[in-house]
Write a structure and sequence with these properties.
311 residues
């Protein structure tokens, strides 16, 4: 009997680990898919609109399912959820899409991976949380690694890398603020309900922006853009969101976060295979420093428990 229980536990752990790794790889593929779509001349506003058109039905269904039998939300929670949707998913996603026009997929993923370090910094500045030597060491490693990759890309791509990096860093800041704001809400509402609600808000904000900035004719794109947008919505947004949630449920947030460290590495490999981005020793060294820094934060218990990624 005991061996059966242990076998079931090992199976559940293996399944959770596979979900965490798979979700992280799919998230990381997003940058590659977006850069492939940019080759067809589509602008960022149209591209993110197409992504939300394809992903919105899934999140509406998830919101309806997760709200069954739940208590109605008070007005204050609605306001906070709208803020989370606008900041953590709409603003972060839009800045990320814009930034990917100017930086490599590998650098974009590394900058976004700084979100846990930004949570630590913002918590220390505004919430007066303790900022110890482990955090200082982790920050030094992470930002040192980013500088290595940044200077490598500047030497190859030129000054636009600075603009793109600033835009993606802005996305990381928005996402870090979302993580701080959502900490208490996600425990009360559950990750699925919170994420689905916020993604619905984000979708309507994206549609409003498109209506203000673009003519409807902008939606007429080459067939390849539609297929890439569908791929981005389903494989790089919806599936990894739920895979990560299921992984956290099975193996815990800390282990799921550890498994997600494969993300930047998989981005480098995918960008090399599909975009022809070169892999250098500087890039690998910078990636290693960032991953070590995030590992230090994870071991110190500073990575937020609700680290599902949608940007």
């Amino acid at each position: 009997m005991q061996s059966d229980v242990q076998s079931a536990q090992r199976t559940a752990f293996a399944a959770g680990l596979a979900l965490a790794i798979g979700g992280s790889i799919l998230f990381s593929a997003k940058a590659v898919v977006i850069k492939l779509a940019y080759r067809y001349g589509v602008d960022a506003t149209t591209l993110i609109t197409l992504r939300m058109v394809f992903s919105l039905p899934f999140f509406v269904a998830a919101l309806i399912w997760s709200s069954r039998g739940a208590q109605p939300l008070p007005r204050a929670d609605h306001i906070r959820l709208v803020l989370i949707g606008l900041l953590g998913y709409y603003a972060a996603s839009y800045l990320d899409f814009l930034g990917l026009k100017y930086v490599t997929a590998a650098l974009e993923r590394l900058i976004l991976y700084l979100s846990p370090t930004l949570v630590v910094v913002l918590s220390a500045l505004f919430l007066r949380k303790h900022f110890g030597r482990y955090e200082w060491g982790a920050l030094a490693l992470c930002y040192g690694g980013i500088l290595l990759v940044f200077w490598h890309d500047v030497s190859l791509e030129g000054g636009q890398v600075l603009l793109g990096s600033a835009l993606v860093f802005g996305a990381a800041v928005c996402y870090a603020v979302y993580l701080i704001i959502s900490g208490e809400l996600v425990r009360r509402l559950g990750a699925i309900r919170l994420t689905a609600y916020a993604m619905c808000v984000s979708s309507f904000a994206v549609f409003a922006q498109f209506a203000l900035l673009n003519p409807m004719s902008a939606l007429r794109q080459p067939q390849e853009v539609y297929w890439l947008s569908l791929l981005n919505a389903v494989l790089c947004t919806v599936l990894p969101v739920f895979a990560t949630m299921l992984a956290v449920e099975r193996i815990g947030a800390s282990r799921a976060s550890m498994a997600s460290m494969i993300g930047p590495v998989s981005t480098i490999a995918l960008a090399y295979l599909f975009l022809g981005e070169r892999i250098s020793l500087w890039q690998l060294a910078g990636t290693a420093l960032v991953l070590i820094g995030i590992y230090v934060l994870t071991r110190a218990g500073k990575v937020p428990a609700s680290k599902e990624e949608v940007t």
